[in-house]
Specification:
It comes from Nocardia arthritidis. The chain crosses the membrane at residues 12-35. This is Mammalian cell entry protein. Keywords: Membrane, Transmembrane, Transmembrane helix. The protein has 176 residues and is α+β, with helices and mostly antiparallel strands. The protein has one domain (10-166): Nuclear Transport Factor 2, Chain: A, CATH 3.10.450. Helices cover 49% and strands 30% of the residues. It is built from 3 helices and 5 strands. The chain has helices spanning 9-64, 71-79, 84-104, and strands spanning 66-67, 107-121, 124-136, 144-155, 161-170. A 5-stranded antiparallel β-sheet has the order 1-2-3-4-5, with helices on both faces. A hairpin with a 5-residue loop joins strand 4 and strand 5.
C-alpha cells in the first residue's frame, strides 16, 4: 500500500523561505560576532601599544633630564619603572656616571617628540622614543639641542616594566 502525501506549493515555499531566512540570520549573527571580536582585539592591541609608548616616552624624558647638582634624582629617574635587574645595573654604574656629569656640570631637559612601537612579541614591546633634548655643560655653556632616540623594551607581562634601554642616537640618525 502506497501512501501519498500532498503538500501545497505555498507550504513548500513558506518552509523554504523560513529555512533560507534562518540560515541567513545565523550566518549574519556569526559574522557580526566575529567582526565584533576582531574589532575588540584590535582596540585592545592599539590600547596596549599606546600604553607601551607612553611608558617608554615618560621613561626617556626622565632619564634625559639631568642636573649634575642632583645625581641621586637622576639615578631615581633612571631606575623608575625598570625591572630589579635593570635598576641594579644602573645603581652599579651610578658612581661612574656621576664622575662624568659632575665635572662637566651637565644639565639637560627633554621634551617628548614621539614614541612608536617598533615590534611586539608575546607582550614584550620594543619602542622607539624620540626626544628634543636641550643641554649645557662646562664645555658648551651656550648649550645645544639634539634629537635623541631611545630603544626601550617594555614588558606587559612584568606589569609594564622596562627591561632594557638602548639608544642615544643623536641628530639626523635619530629620525630614521
Amino acid at each position: 500500500m502506497t501512501r501519498q502525501i500532498s503538500l501545497r506549493i505555498s507550504t513548500i515555499l513558506t518552509a523554504l523561505a523560513v529555512t533560507v531566512l534562518l540560515a541567513t540570520t545565523v550566518t549574519f549573527v556569526t559574522l557580526w560576532a566575529l567582526a565584533r571580536s576582531e574589532l575588540h582585539d584590535r582596540d585592545v592591541r592599539a590600547a596596549d601599544d599606546r600604553h607601551a609608548e607612553q611608558v617608554a616616552i615618560d621613561y626617556a624624558v626622565g632619564s634625559s633630564t639631568i642636573d649634575y647638582r642632583d645625581p641621586k634624582a637622576w639615578l631615581t629617574r633612571l631606575q623608575a619603572n625598570t625591572t630589579k635587574e635593570l635598576a641594579a645595573k644602573f645603581a652599579a654604574t651610578a658612581p661612574q656616571l656621576e664622575q662624568v656629569i659632575t665635572p662637566l656640570q651637565w644639565t639637560s631637559t627633554a621634551k617628548p617628540i614621539r614614541a612608536v612601537v617598533a615590534s611586539e612579541s608575546g607582550g614584550v614591546y620594543r619602542v622607539d622614543a624620540f626626544l628634543d633634548v636641550a643641554s649645557t655643560s662646562s664645555q658648551a655653556p651656550q648649550g645645544g639641542r639634539n634629537t635623541v632616540a631611545y630603544d626601550i623594551t617594555v614588558d606587559r607581562n612584568q606589569d609594564w616594566k622596562i627591561t632594557s634601554v638602548g639608544g642615544g642616537l643623536q641628530g639626523p640618525l635619530a629620525g630614521r
